[in-house]
């Protein structure tokens, strides 16, 4: 019997060799797979499906509909173990359009001990994602389709969706590259562009990229660099990070500045929690900076200023995201094209679990419109 990793590799090879030909016969099954794979509102269904199929192929004796050991029967199994141990690495290795976190921690699937049959209401949105996923599991259980064929078909659909998304970005990027614009956007035009991008839905990751792009474009002038970004969904206690973005001196590893991003007002409790993290880490940093896209309360700002003496030299400050960006772009005016390119690179490099495809496309469209306006 092949290992789970080998099973996934075999399924991928099969899928890659039949991209133009579905690997299951029933049209309804093909459409269910496609819907689960391509639904952007809920990405848990496809990971549940892959984990369950992998477990069934690896352990043919199990009931694919019982991905919870809490069920207590001999044919139950841990879907979360297969998901976290094998699916995560696999999708990251092949850049498949899935979330990088397990499906079994989503509200609809965590803390369950039931058999997942089509009549179960998992209370997730949209309901059809779960309905179709559970129906697919039942089709395997009843022998209507083999787990091997369905896993390969799922991967085929994922590859096609991945390549479709890549093509859309490629076309948009080519539109930028062929603009023929020789005058870079002004600092204020870049500020407007970023403001528009921050105003799009699901943009909570973007302030991190704004600050990272500033440091990345001016690194040699600042003598500082930002450390690799942590997963958007990972808590600081999991990553060991002080904040969302950590800055060190070039050629040194000690964090001198930590940034924490908020898409709401910063509160006194946020500052107290930051101080707890600093104490827990035993860190000796120079600055702990909150970047917010909301208003800054005077009382909270005053409280932040009082931390300097209380900590013996750690400065805590709250800045608004656009104000930070505007000051940076005018201070390093000649670096504004490099900032914009760095922001774009960081944006496109982000996994979809952190920055959705629509956000990436929106930025490229907004940038093209802004640069076309200058060209005209």
Q: Output mean pLDDT.
A: 91
For the biggest β-sheet, the strand order reads 1-2-3-4-5
**C-alpha geometry:** globular
Structural class: alpha/beta
**What percentage of residues falls in helices of 4 or more residues?**
40-55%
Put simply, the count of helices is 16
Which ranges are low-confidence, i.e. pLDDT below 50, for 5 or more consecutive residues?
A: none
Instruction: Kindly state the number of beta strands.
Output: 5
Name the beta content range.
5-15%
Distance between the termini: 64 Å
| Largest beta-sheet characterization | 5 strands, mixed
What is the alpha-carbon Rg in Å?
Answer: 24 Å
* SSE string, helices as H and strands as E: HHHHHHHHHEHEEHEHHEHHH
In short:
The chain is of the alpha/beta class and 376 residues long. Helices cover 55% and strands 7% of the residues.
Keywords:
376 residues, alpha/beta, 5-stranded mixed beta sheet, 16 helices, globular
Blueprint (SSEs and pairs):
Elements: H1 4-17, H2 27-38, H3 44-58, H4 79-93, H5 127-141, H6 147-177, H7 187-198, H8 206-217, H9 219-222, E1 224-226, H10 236-239, E2 245-249, E3 255-262, H11 268-281, E4 287-292, H12 298-305, H13 307-311, E5 315-320, H14 321-331, H15 336-349, H16 357-375
């Amino acid at each position: 019997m092949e290992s789970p990793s080998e099973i996934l590799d075999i399924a991928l090879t099969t899928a890659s060799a039949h991209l133009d030909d579905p690997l299951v016969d029933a049209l309804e099954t093909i459409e269910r797979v496609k819907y689960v794979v391509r639904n952007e509102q809920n990405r848990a269904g496809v990971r549940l499906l892959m984990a369950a199929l992998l477990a069934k192929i690896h352990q043919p004796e199990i009931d694919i509909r019982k991905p919870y050991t809490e069920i207590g029967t001999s044919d139950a199994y841990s879907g979360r173990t297969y998901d976290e141990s094998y699916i995560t690495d696999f999708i990251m290795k092949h850049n498949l359009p899935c979330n990088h976190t397990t499906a079994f921690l989503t509200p609809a699937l965590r803390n369950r001990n039931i058999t997942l049959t089509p009549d179960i209401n998992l209370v997730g949105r949209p309901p059809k994602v779960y309905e179709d996923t559970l129906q697919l599991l039942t089709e395997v259980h009843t022998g209507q389709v083999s787990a091997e064929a369905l896993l390969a078909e799922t991967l085929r659909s994922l590859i096609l969706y991945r390549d479709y998304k890549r093509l859309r970005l490629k076309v948009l990027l080519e539109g930028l590259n062929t603009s023929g614009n020789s005058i870079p956007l002004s600092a204020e035009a870049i500020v407007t562009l970023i403001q528009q991008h921050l105003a799009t839905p699901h943009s909570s990751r973007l302030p991190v990229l704004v600050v990272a792009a500033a440091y990345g474009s001016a690194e040699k002038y600042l003598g500082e660099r930002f450390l690799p970004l942590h997963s958007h969904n990972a808590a600081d206690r999991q990553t060991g990070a002080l904040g969302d973005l950590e800055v060190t001196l070039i050629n040194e590893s000690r964090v001198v500045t930590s940034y924490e991003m908020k898409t709401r007002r910063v509160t006194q409790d946020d500052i107290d929690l930051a101080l707890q993290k600093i104490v827990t880490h035993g860190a000796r940093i120079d600055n702990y900076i909150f970047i917010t896209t909301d208003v800054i309360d005077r009382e909270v700002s005053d409280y932040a200023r009082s931390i300097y003496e209380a900590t013996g030299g750690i400065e805590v400050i709250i800045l608004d995201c656009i104000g930070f960006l505007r000051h940076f772009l005018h201070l390093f005016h000649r670096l504004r094209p490099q900032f914009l390119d760095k922001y774009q690179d960081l944006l496109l490099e982000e996994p979809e679990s952190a920055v959705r495809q629509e956000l990436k496309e929106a930025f490229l469209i907004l940038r093209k419109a802004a640069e076309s306006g200058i060209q005209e």
